[in-house]
Amino acid sequence: MKFFSKMVKLFFLNVLATLFSFSLVQASENILIGVPAAQSGPLGVADHQDWTNGVLMAIEDINAKGGVLGRNLEAKIIDLDMLSPEGNIAGFQSLLEADVHAIASAFTIIPQPAMDAAAPSGIPYVHGNTSSVNVDLYKSDPQKYRNIFQLDVPEVWYGTGFVRFLTDLKASGAWEPKNNKVHIVQGQISYTQLISQSTQAEIKNSDWEVAAITDIQFPVQDWTPVIKALRNTDAAAIMIDHWVAAELAAFAQQYAFDPVPGALVYLQYGPSQPEFLELAAGAGEGMVWGSVYGVYADEKGTAFRERYKAKYPGIMGMVYTGGGYDAVHILAEAWKAAGDPNNFDAVGDAIRNMNYRGINGTYKIDPETNSGISYPNMVSDPEAGQAHLFFQVQNDEHRIIAPSPYAEVPFVKAPWM
Prior knowledge:
There is one protein chain. This protein has helices spanning 2-28, 45-64, 85-97, 111-118, 132-140, 156-172, 190-204, 224-233, 245-257, 275-280, 299-311, 320-338, 344-352; strands at residues 31-37, 73-79, 102-105, 125-127, 148-150, 181-186, 209-215, 237-241, 264-268, 288-291, 356-358, 361-363, 374-375, 386-387, 389-394, 397-402. By secondary structure, it is of the alpha/beta class. The strands form 4 sheets. A 7-stranded mixed sheet has the order 7-6-8-9-10-15-16, with helices on both faces. The protein has a 5-stranded parallel sheet with strand order 2-1-3-4-5, sandwiched between helices. Helix 2 crosses helix 12.
């Protein structure tokens, strides 16, 4: 009996030793972040590179401070074909097969395949899609998509915010519009169509008037007919609702030779990509653009910009650089709160209840949409969401001109004004 008791004791000691040694091995493994990033193709490469750079910079910073739960972070980066449903599914499945602990994505052009690929695993998937499609899918099945978070807001807020910006700029006296007309030039993808529709809806509730709508198709081969239409309308405000940086740079160059006198020109988002300033070659001077999700120029944002430029020389992207950096820090905070990166629902709950002040503003999740909150479009407290930033190209640099709590410089008249 004594011999049997000793054998049992030895057995359990061996089991405990094995479990302890297994836990040490597990604790020493890196926490993997899956990063699906387009590295080739006609769309999204610059934004995805910005995001990847921000992710890698955050991982380096966090690991230098000891990592998370005693483990280092590591990025698993794959080349994402995001222009086809099959490409999205294949990319996300490859990350799930690699046993990543979370997926951090700048955006996918077609959101549903990526969401449906990630959802069954319950894995935390954070992204900056800026899409109503994501919100609608979440609302259709909150349980299925519970751990998929859009860190910024849907694109419709671009329209609301643009009209607010025009009204506030006029009220400030910095701009005296020659009339109340707005001319919208709209692309044909869902993203730009929804922005156009929300702009038109907001204008109906304002003192502004939609004077004309001009359709464009990607790729835009020649902006001459568009510029002719703009001159014929002679609106005080022009909205180029198109997000491809290279094509917006081509517009800027052509517009510089035949501008609409006195008009404020707003380019939808695309100038945030580094290639805009390179390709515009000075022609973008004075043009305005906006982002509901951008790098601040406050003390925290300025320090990040300086460090980023030192690490990645050249023109800095003003949106997804900070977005990728913030996404990793958000995941790191959630893993600490959950205590286990493999407890996906606990990590998801931590993200859902977060209040994180990052480079791109304050991240809070709207429980109705599983997406971010926008200031001043949705809340009046500047620190209760991410500011809808408006930039103007001044001296060949992007400078924040609104909203007032985060403006670097005042609006200045463009050369053609």
